[in-house]
Amino acid sequence: MSDEGITLRLYRTHRDTLVSYAGKLSGDRVGAEDIVQDAWLLLDRKVESGVVREPLGYLRRIIRNLVFSQARQSRETVIAPEDMPDIADERPSAEAECMARQMMERVLDAIDAMPPRQRAAIKMYHFEEMKLREIAEKLGMSLSYTQTLITRGMEICNQCRRQGR
Q1: In sequence order, which residues have a C-beta less than 8 Å from that of residue 156 and are 6 or more positions away?
Q2: How far apart are CA 125 and CA 132, in angstroms?
Q3: How far apart are CA 109 and CA 8, in angstroms?
Q4: Which of 34, 62, 81, 148 is most buried when burial is the number of CB atoms within 10 A of its CB?
Q5: 68: CB partners within 8 A, 6+ apart
Q6: Collapsed DSSP state (helix, strand, coil) of residue 2
Q7: How many Å apart are CA 59 and CA 80, to the nearest integer?
Q8: Tens digit of each residue's pLDDT (9 = 90 or more) over 7-32
Q9: Region for 154 from its dihedrals, namely left if φ exceeds 0, alpha if ψ lies in -120 to 50, beta otherwise
Q10: Are 128 and 122 in contact (CB under 8 A)?
Q11: 68 phi/psi in degrees, rounded to 5
Q12: Per-residue DSSP letters for 81-142?
């Protein structure tokens, strides 16, 4: 007798027992029939590609694995909204973003209102990330005067931020 005949005979002989087994594992009699058919197809392919020593035991293992796989998939895909974990949105609120933008505009306006060398020194230091020595050389000023201009400029910016609160 051919292998195909063995799997078909096995299916016909043990179908009801296997459906009952799958139904007990899954808790779903209708779904159990589908699982047994899928298992039988997998067994049939396996027999075609090689020898299966204990086809009935192998078929029961396939059924068990299919039931567990479906249960795992249903747990992964079906999550009720009330079961969803609370994940805090760490982004600032729209109101906080708006206030931050307004404060930044006030600071930029304060920088634009500074004398030209102080404005240039602040922009080079904070926006272009230049070092004090480089700024002093570029503007033709001493290092200490450059530092004083930037420090005073930052005090003006901080004062604008405090007034904006």
Answers
A1: 110, 114
A2: 7
A3: 85
A4: 62
A5: 25
A6: coil
A7: 34
A8: 788 878 888 899 888 888 888 888 88
A9: alpha
A10: no
A11: -65, -40
A12: GGGSPP----SPPHHHHHHHHHHHHHHHHHHHTS-HHHHHHHIIIIIS---HHHHHHHHT--
Average pLDDT value over all residues in the chain: 85
Instruction: Report which residue type is found at 60.
Output: R
Which residue bears the tokens 């609120």?
93
Tell me: the pLDDT tens digits for 37-88?
888 888 888 877 777 788 888 888 999 999 888 888 877 666 666 666 676 6
8 Å CB contact between 149 and 155: no
